[in-house]
Amino acid sequence: MSHVNSGVDFKITGIEILETIIQTKNLIKDYHTGDITVRALKGINLEIHKGEFVAIMGASGSGKSTLMNILGCLDVPSGGDYILDKVQVNKLSKKELADIRNQKIGFVFQGYNLLSRTSALENVEMPLLYNRSVHYPDPAKLAISALTKVGLGDRVHHHPNQLSGGQQQRVAIARSLINNPAVILADEPTGNLDTKTSIEVLSIFQELNDQGITVLLITHEHDIAYYAKRIIEVRDGLILKDYQVEKRKNAVEDLSNFKVEEIEII
Ligand code: ADP
Ligand code: MG
After folding, report:
1. Cβ proximity of 102 and 92 under 8 Å
2. Which residue from 27, 31, 217, 235 has its CB within 8 A of the most atoms of ligand 1, so it is best to mutate?
């Protein structure tokens, strides 16, 4: 009997580990400009599970942002299916799409997309105010907690122009976390940052992923993609390769090497 029970337990654990967050089937996206149609996605099949850290990597024009916009419910596909956290997204109305986006997705963009005349705290609170399905009694407290998580607990009243690029991106990461999303989508989040600051930002994504948060990072750089656990390479609107990273880079280790080099220079 005990043998049978342990088999059942194993299966239950297996199901929990493999909970699917994102699934696409033959996803297609056409852009129409005048008489010309560009097929930016030509049939994308992918499956991403809870707790994964996936980099979508490809050259400029390969369709990364198009894919991210659909996965993030900012745009709808021209064909195929998209299932986000058990919801068939491609059948939803615009309003339903906005609701599911606010509930399930945290966004981080290359240009931070912070409101310049408001403090870090107010920027991070923003998604809570847009979430119509939940009332938050103390948004400021949640925002301070998210800012503390990204190491900015002492900068909550600073405005974006009083923060460095890396700090602004950390505010954006705190904002992406605030709704407790099913997945964080980051489109070229280190594109505006120098190498060391990029690794600092990646150390935050790795730490959040270690805490169980699902991260989808979009990048055109190999060096950045190797901080993820899995890489999906796209080219011309199709998946070229999909593999687990063997020698994954560790951002905290790489940062400590930076410090050693700086001391040597002195
Ligand atoms: P990436 O993010 O990998 O650089 P994109 O998803 O932005 O690639 O673009 C994929 C293809 O779709 C490119 O050929 C691009 O020119 C085209 N494209 C992207 N957005 C639009 C749009 N709004 N209208 C027309 N064509 C577009
Ligand atoms: Mg892009």
Report:
1. no
2. 31
So what's the pLDDT on residue 7?
43
Residue 242: exposure state from Cβ atoms within 10 A (0-12, 13-18, ≥19): middle
Q: What's the pLDDT at 5?
A: 45
What is the dihedral angle through the alpha carbons of 121, 127, 129, 133, rounded to the nearest 10 degrees?
-150
List the structure tokens of 81: 């299916």
Using a CB cutoff of 5 Å, list residues around ligand 2, an ion.
Answer: 64-65
Predicted TM-score of the model (pTM): 0.89
Q: Where are the alpha helices (DSSP H) in the chain?
A: 2-17, 64-71, 94-104, 120-130, 139-149, 165-177, 195-210, 222-225, 251-265
**Single-letter residue type at 261:** E
Q: What is the dihedral sign for C-alpha 60, 103, 207, 142?
A: positive
Q: How far apart are CA 44 and CA 63, in angstroms?
A: 10
Q: Which domains does the chain have, with CATH numbers?
A: 19-265 (3.40.50.300)
**Residue 187 CA, closest ligand 1 atom number:** 2
Which residues on adjacent β-strands are paired with residue 36? 33
- Report the chain (266 residues): mean pLDDT per 10 consecutive residues: 45 63 98 96 97 97 96 95 94 89 94 95 92 85 96 97 96 95 96 95 96 96 97 98 97 87 60
Helix (H, G, I), strand (E, B) or coil at 180: coil
